[in-house]
Design goal:
Layout lengths: L1 E5 L4 E6 L6 E7 L5 E5 L6 E6 L4 E5 L4 E7 L1 H6 L1
Antiparallel strand pairs: 1-2, 2-3, 4-5, 5-6, 6-7
GO biological process, one term: Golgi to plasma membrane transport
Protein name: Syntaxin-binding protein 5-like
GO molecular function, one term: syntaxin binding
Amino acid sequence: GALVTACADDTLHLWNLRQRRPAILHSLKFNRERITFCHLPFQSKWLYVGTERGNTHIVNIESFVLSGYVIMWNKAIEL
């Protein structure tokens, strides 16, 4: 009953498809990084958003808010 879309202007939209006319419930704009990839694991409440800088941001699907946790590409490489 829901759909997540990533737009060319680096905005994520959460759509409600359970009504006669689909409507955007929440939007989230990325200002400093461009979105290149999104992954929502099956039955997960966490959406993983990859950026062109190589970082991974995590979005809570239920509240559609960015978590404070970010996987930085340079920190992951050091491991």
